[in-house]
Specification:
- With 123 residues, this protein is an all-beta fold.
- It contains no helices and eleven strands.
- A hairpin with a 6-residue loop joins strand 4 and strand 5.
- The protein is globular.
Length: 123
């Protein structure tokens, strides 16, 4: 059983940056591929990024490529999402999740989820 806790969300202006963190406990963090998802009000949960366990290979949604960077520190059991050049359409609750499936973009492939952190980008 893996417990995930996100932090780092907040209210920012368009063009600003934020770094989200997701701290894991209770399981073999380094064995999991870690993903970030987001869900805006009235919309379905959307894949943002994934980083693999072994080689730290990143995968990104087209909407965030070039602006967001996912990274992980296995010594700290933490995965990060650096978000630059934020836009109002990035406003959502951001959640991290763990999976054994490399390249998974569907939420159903993820076994463990955090509670999420709110990111609000004003125009």
């Amino acid at each position: 059983q893996v417990q995930l806790v996100e932090s780092g969300g907040g209210l920012v202006q368009a063009g600003d940056s934020l770094r989200l963190s997701c701290a894991a406990s209770g399981g073999a963090f380094s064995s999991y591929a870690m993903g970030w998802f987001r869900q805006a009000p009235g919309k379905q949960r959307e894949f943002v990024a994934q980083i693999t366990a072994t080689f730290g290979t990143p995968y990104y949604a087209a909407s965030v490529t070039g602006r967001f960077t996912i990274s992980r520190d296995n010594a700290k059991n933490t995965v990060y999402l650096q978000m630059n050049s934020l836009k109002p359409e990035d406003t959502a609750v951001y959640s991290c999740a763990a999976t054994f499936t490399v390249g998974a973009t569907s939420p159903v492939a993820y076994n463990y989820w955090g509670q999420g952190t709110q990111v609000t980008v004003s125009s």
